[in-house]
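Protein modeling request. Please complete all fields; requests missing the sequence field cannot be processed.
Requester role: graduate student
Desired output: 3D structure, token encoding
Chains: 1
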Amino acid sequence: MKRNAAATGYSFPPATRPEVWREHIVPVVAVAPLTDPRIAELLKVEPGTRVMRRLRVTGPEAEPPFQASTSWIHPRAAAVPGLDSPAAGPGAWQHRLEAGGHWPITWMEIHRARMPSTREAALLEIPASLPVLEIIRVGVSGGDGEPVEVTECVVASDRVETIHLLHRDVSAREPWPEVINVCAEDDPEQ
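Delivered output (190 residues):
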């Protein structure tokens, strides 16, 4: 993730290229029951808890919708000024969370491929038979070390690629010892 160069806030992969994105629907911000048990567990609330929910469907200009993003904000943070405004656009609402006492937020992502719901397929303008990449991002408050927001991004699989930089563990930082080749006919275990 990086700071959004066009506005106050953050940009997360896959929205990291220098291109202009637009809203494909009017953003929706409302308090609603969080009924998804998986998301509720990640946010550390009971299923059915009323939480602030932010829904946005965005993508590069002149292209079909790229992602549907739904964010759930923990009730202890919902009173932060400006979070209930749809105008707190991409990444700006996380900035407001940080300014409201949760600096610095750290994030962890969970990725999985799955089939879209009928609603997700309609929002992304894709057939329901096209798999999607689901990215669940858990934002942990720097103030208390607990989840403050969970965002689910759903991206059509034909519009995304992932790139991962792998880091060597301490156990793999030294070169392998020289291995002596043993011919198969010399192997007593054979």
